[in-house]
Amino acid sequence: MIEFIDLIRKVDLFSCLEEGELIDLASQFELINLKEGEILFSRGDRSDYIYLVISGHISSYLVNKDQQFQPIGTIEQGQILGEAGVLSEEPRMLTVKAIVATQLARLSAEQFKNLCYNNVVILEKMAKTVIARSQLTMNFIADEAIQQWHIIIPANPQTSIDKFKEKLKKNAENYQNLLLVETNEVSKIKEILNNQSYKKNHIFLLMIISAEILEKLIGLIKIKTVYLLADNQSDLSIEPKIISLIDNKISKNYVKIELILLHSDNVKMPSNTIKWLEKFSFAFHYHIKQNRDEDYQRLLRFINGSSTALVLGGGGAKGWFHVGLIKALAEKNIKIDAIAGVSAGALIGACYLFDSEFNQVVDNLERITNTFYRITKFKNLTWPLVSFFNSSQAQAVLQEIFQETKIEDLWRPFFCVTANLSICGESAHYSGELASRLMASNSIPGVLPPCIINGQLHYDGGLINNLPIDIMRNRIGKKNKIIASCLSASSPDNRIYNFPQKINLF
């Protein structure tokens, strides 16, 4: 109860309440639990409760004419939802469902109305939140009908934009709906805005050189994404004014902030990416070699909404099918811009991104699969307190192949999924040591021991989400394509099992 009161105290909507009022309010909430993918309410449902997210997170969706879910936004721990419908007494406008196993607390419409009518400050705070969310929904609906602006700005004065701009300009020539804007004069940018010859679905990529120009553009154009461009070998810093503009002005308009890291041509594998990611909560990051065209092409595909992500499911030895799929895509010249994997799919995706030379991919996978086969032999049996077999050999071969490589340092985006026993849900790993996360995503309960990551217990991700298309979709957006490879049966097991309470071996 004390922890719940502390959570309510941190909610901005209730920050005006006295201690006694907080305790009284906490006693009125009712706890509910949602499973992964379970719908909390649907568009058109009666607005009879407000909800506070205690753990996990949920997403709101518009359902289009084809009955497809289009994500609008996410609601995470400590955030309130459903309040607008309660006060307006109108049906729900959006569909809301749990992305992972989620616990919420709900307060009835009558109780919330009484609270608001007795506390005008709560109504004022709520009005701001409702307006912001309404703008987000309207922006989503209007996205296809208005000009989209993506801004690239150096993270600090030490980052030169000139060479990057020339390479990007050269690689952008084949994108008819993408216009690279080089001017930094606000008057000329206004001329572009008023130029009727540009189609409404044009994507404008604007290269600016300073935070002062960025400040002038806020409110003038619809900024969809701000990319901070940084040289990974230069000063690890972000100009304070840029951070201030993002925190105080840009983020309020639901603009994505992403990172582009430049590397010299002699760099084999990026390093120290985590130091940049710790400086700001970037939605995404890209690695680009100064003179490697394929890296610029990949960035442009993401900007243009034409990138292709690969999601590889688990399936044990059947995972070799994924290898054939990757080879077939390469032969068809279909570029893979990002990969997500679970269990065997995580191993294969990681091997490909670590070294995309096909023969080397096969060699590494053969070493890994042979090792996993050996550890399930009789001589590797352990005292079955946690598992039947010892995973040390598998951990060793993964460490030998991937060494100290971090997920965030791979040239292309990657994540793998594990079943996190400590939170009773899934965990998607976008950063951290690659070898240990792969081991965790392949640790079958009872067969191999769980892996400990940041003090939490992780098992094979296929237990919870064997094909994380939903996570990839939320990560790359609604326009980019996803190719999914599922190895397990999609139909339910209809067999009826009947085992005795005690099974005799002899």
Automatic annotation (TrEMBL):
The active site is at S343 (nucleophile), D460 (proton acceptor). Coiled coil: none annotated. The keyword Lipid metabolism applies. A motif (GXGXXG) lies at residues 314-319. One of its GO terms (molecular function) is phosphatidylcholine lysophospholipase activity. Residues 13-133 form the Cyclic nucleotide-binding domain. PROSITE patterns: CNMP_BINDING_3, PNPLA. Signal peptide: none annotated. GO terms for biological process: lipid catabolic process. InterPro entries: Acyl_Trfase/lysoPLipase, cNMP-bd_dom, cNMP-bd_dom_sf, NTE, PNPLA_dom, RmlC-like_jellyroll. A motif (GXSXG) lies at residues 341-345. Keywords: Hydrolase, Lipid degradation, Lipid metabolism. A motif (DGA/G) lies at residues 460-462. Residues 310-473 form the PNPLA domain. Belongs to the NTE family. This is Patatin-like phospholipase. It comes from Legionella nautarum.
